[in-house]
């Protein structure tokens, strides 16, 4: 019976969170003097702005080391109070705000796209209501907020490189874990998807009027298998996309109205994107180039310095705090990148070299032929949970975007967005070729697909039919992968209560029983050394340690410098470990990176100083002698 009330409660709390975020965002827009924007645009920008302010409302007491439960309750109460003030004070502005003339009624194809989009969003919502199983969410997006709640502030976490990166979305998840738990964190990320979709619709309405297939564009974006896969997890990629899209949208509005307020908002959202992920570091450079280009085209050379100053100041104010946090904790504002220039606590040259090798290993090669084949490989040969881009895009962009070359008239904002996407893609190709890092450009490419459909829909020849058939086939391809994702997780049982949380997680995460045993059977105060357990720290409350990127790095360093099993024991004792848990396939099996000497020393150490406690298949848990 409790499960019947849990789902409405989760959705109700998400609704309160959305109400609060939008209300706070409305105040931001009113302060920025852009509250007279069309009503739909106001809702979108308020959603993005309110999320940013809410994240910083949690960040500030965390940075000061004073995020106690009482302080967090006060922060949340202040946000709610501010949102009430925002709704009350700004309601008149919103009610009087104009809106763009409605477009012609959608045809059957658009109605079908809207229906398919609704079904897809319903599937994502259902998946978001189930316990978290996403890898990165279990590795750091959720464990870090839980650790910060426990410590009441930021601190250096040995072995966890992810804790020293931009963490804006994790601030929202900190509040979510405090209020409700992991499901609310997942729902917030799902809410970011809804925000992006609304932003796409409003951007198309204002700046890409020739796109007569807006719902098809939204379906193309949301149906990309990688986008769908992250939409129901506590990842951060859709928050990155929300802020990057809002920054570009505000820039496009500034180019149309030439109001400095829009430029300030573009910098504000750029800073928020920077506070989420390092991949957005290219955004300020693109913003500066855009301002310079528009200023030259419009003859605004006298205003260019002031415009650049507005944009740069807003970007720095809302983007720099997380980099200052990294600088204070590690000595490197871009930790672990640029190690040769800045160094970094808890990192060393060997790890930096290994990380560079890991980044270069993503994708399908770095030769000139690989770059030429990159669009094809990304469209047809990418795979999830694989070095081959770790995600699926599908061929929709490869088959439709080249048709833009035959279009004579393309709205300038759409041209800029395509140039933006191209530069982002080139930056992505030269760095970590992981599909998720491309999600911020997919909304613009999806809008371009709708524009292609609009251009060729009136063609009586093969081009019009071909374009529609290709897009439809690609949507079917994406739908197949979406349904496979849903069938793999099978969330209905655990949501309805016919499958327990333990059974659900055990079915999807083979190592879960071992993590559960750590919580239920080990004594309080245990500190577990994890080796190749995939770093699923969120699965247990006990203190654990693991190397976040190279899971055998620390133990191999210990083994390589030890002369005997006793030396290994002394080192582990000195680090405070009481237990050790590992996957034997990566320690003694064919997938092991241990040298023969390291394996032999580890085997002797295990025989002499470890006490077997539990085994589940390839997973082993030991007690360390003397602890």
pLDDT below 50 for ≥5 consecutive residues: which ranges? none
Please give the count of helices. Answer: 28
Tell me the number of strands. Answer: 5
- Order of strands, main sheet, comes to 2-1-3-5-4
Please give the alpha-carbon distance between the first and last residues: 44 Å
The coarse silhouette is globular
What is the radius of gyration computed over CA atoms, rounded to a whole number of angstroms? 25 Å
Major sheet details: 5 strands, mixed
Percentage of β-strand residues: under 5%
Q: What is the typical, i.e. mean, pLDDT?
A: 90
- Give the number of domains: 2
Question: Helicity range of the residues?
Answer: 55-70%
Description:
The protein has 28 helices and 5 strands. It is mainly α. The chain has 2 domains: 2-334 and 344-488, no CATH class; 509-624, no CATH class. The chain has a 5-stranded mixed β-sheet. Strand 4 (610-616) and strand 5 (619-624) form a beta hairpin. The two termini are 44 Å apart. The model has no long low-confidence stretch (mean pLDDT 90).
Write the layout of secondary structure elements.
Blueprint: H1 2-31, H2 39-64, H3 69-96, H4 108-128, H5 135-141, H6 143-151, H7 168-179, H8 182-207, H9 214-222, H10 225-231, H11 237-257, H12 260-274, H13 282-298, H14 304-330, H15 339-342, H16 349-361, H17 368-372, H18 374-380, H19 396-400, H20 412-429, H21 442-456, H22 462-489, H23 492-496, H24 501-508, H25 512-521, E1 527-531, E2 543-545, H26 553-561, H27 565-574, E3 579-583, H28 596-609, E4 610-616, E5 619-624
Parallel strand pairs: 1-2, 1-3
Antiparallel strand pairs: 3-5, 4-5
